[in-house]
Each structure stands twice: as C-alpha cells, then as structure tokens.
Please model this.
Amino acid sequence: MSFTITGTGSCLPAFTVQNDDFTKFVDTSDEWITTRTGIRRRHFIKDETLSQIAVEASQKALENAGLAAADMDLILCATLQGEDVSPSLACLVQAELGANCPAFDLNAGCSGFLYALHSAAAYFRAGMANHILIVCAEQLSRFLDWKDRSTCVLFGDGAGAVVLSRGDSLLTVRTGARGQRENLQVPGRNVSGPFWHDTEKSRSLLSMNGREIFKFAVTTVQNEIESAVKDAGLTADDVDYFLLHQANGRIIDSARTRLHQPEEKFPGNYEECGNTSAASIPLLLDELNRNHRLKKGDILLLCAFGAGLTWGSCIIRWEKN
Ligand code: UT7
Model:
C-alpha cells in the first residue's frame, strides 16, 4: 500500500521578468538565454511572501482533492530554504491552513519533490498516514548573484503542491545523492561580526559550474529513467508523460532524443517559469491536471536532479478523473 495523488495546486508570484530585462544590468541577450536554455521569462516574489505562495498552492491542492487541512496527517515542505531558518516553512503553512499534524521541511535541492514523495511513501507503508500534503516552494531570487550572467538568468520563484492519499498508484520511487560542494553551491550565510569576518564577499549567493552540472544532469536523467522503468516492469514507450526537472530545455531534449520519444510526452514550463528548483515538477503537474491533459490510468514518470548533488525518479499511475 502506498499512495495516489488526489489533488494538485500551484502558485506563481505576479511579478514577471523577461529575458530582455537582464540586459539592463548584465552582458546577456534574449537570444543567448533562449537558445541555450529555452527560458523566456520567470516569476519573482516581490509583493508576496514565500509562505503566502506556499499556502495558496496548498489550499488549491486541498480543494482539488476535496479534503480539508484537518484531514492531513503530515505536511512536508521541500525547499532550499524556508521564509525563515526557523520556524520551518512547513510549520508556517500548517498554521495558516489550520492543520493539526506534524510538519517539517526537507532540502534536497531541485530533487526535493522526489525526496518528499519517497519519504511520504514510507509514511504510507508504515501505516502512519492516510493523507499527506507535500508543498514545494522556492524563492531562488533571494540567493542569486545579479552580477553573474551565467546563473541569474536561469532561475525563478514559485510553489507547487500535491495531496497524497492512501492508494496503489506508486509503481516505483528512487532517490540518490553524491555529496559535493564544488559545482553547485548556495552558502546562504554572511559570517561577519565582532569575533570573525568572512573573507569571501558573495558567500551567501548561488554559484554553479553550468557545464559540469549539465553533464551530470544529462547522464543522471538517462540513468534514472532507464532504472525507473525497469523497476516498474515497463518500457519508455509505456510512459504517457515524462515530467522532468525544468532546468534547461536542452537537457529535456537530450533525454527525449535518446529515448526516441515524441515531444508531446515531455510537457514543459521552463519557458514561462525558468528553473524553479523543487517546485518545477509539481508546478508542471498542476498545470497538466488543471488543463485536463491527464487521463485516468496515464503513466507519469517524474525525474529530477540538483544541488547536493541529488537526484530522484518516480513512476505514478494517474487515478483522478
Ligand atoms: O537545477 C539546478 C541544476 N542546474 C542546471 O541544470 C544547469 C545546467 N547547465 C546549463 O543549463 C548550462 O550549462 C548553462 C545554461 C548554465 C550554460 O550553457 P552552456 O551552453 O553550457 O554555456 P557555457 O557555460 O559553456 O558558456 C558558453 C559561453 C561562455 O562564454 P565564452 O567563455 O565561450 O566566451 C559564457 O561566459 O556563454 C557565456 N555566457 C553567457 N553569455 C550571454 C554564460 N552565460 C551567459 C549569458 N549571456 N547569460
């Protein structure tokens, strides 16, 4: 016994930034960003807060599931960092929803949604939950180095949520990690004070070796998809939709080409949202659900990779009408 997805929800901040807007402060162009990544615009939190968008995505997911906050046995929030270091974002969401259940954050970089699904599966298998709310909410804009053209154009903010209920739709879920700092790092701290000072100026901001992460991403996605379909006793042809982490259109195209699968099976939101880290797959899932693109019985393969380094994949049968 594992789970089935009974509801999805999402929330994007109102403020959008076009590729051309970056040309005002870094040496870049719409043409470079579009051809190298496929990204055209992204949303940044300006007039909202991270907890507000997380709550809105969660409320929509609960409504879509036809369940109340009081029905939840756990709230799991995947985020690089919540609104505050403490309390956790999950606790802020729990309070705002009026839920009465345990709540905690997990950080697995862009693979956070897969890690949350894996953790939730263990709760269901242990008989510890009937309903779990997962909300993935990210505010990467807080960590971007606006002088670094190779990273500031790539990311966006957003929140996506799912409600999971006891069921049998999970065919496989896998997660993995290979800890390292050098290719992708968000220190997120400024250590200065009367007794010490930080020598690195931009120590709190995101830095990435894009080429190395690109290679890691292409290999990981390929390996994970192959392993996941094998675990589930399927082939890639049996999969109706591949929902891959939305970091770069070229990474998705590479997976599609290697798998010899049609473009329609690889929906995307990177053009409109950029890379929203852990929120990218649940945002995409909600869009497909709201647009009635998913049919009961569809096989969905989810696959993500990211900072940590981490990765994860999952195959789920869609059971909603
Ligand atoms: O979710 C977390 C995981 N992150 C990712 O998956 C990101 C993976 N990596 C990527 O998506 C790509 O590596 C990038 C989009 C980050 C970069 O694309 P690339 O084709 O690998 O470019 P590159 O890093 O090899 O850079 C090529 C050139 C460089 O100039 P030179 O050295 O050839 O003169 C860069 O300085 O492009 C330059 N460049 C830019 N030019 C204009 C880098 N960023 C920009 C920019 N505008 N924004």
In short: The mean pLDDT is 96. Residues 210-231 form the longest helix (22 residues). The pocket of oxa(dethia)-CoA is lined by residues 28, 32-33, 36-37, 110, 149-150, 153, 210-211, 213-214, 217, 247-248, 275, 306 (CB under 6 Å). The chain is about 30% helix and 25% strand.
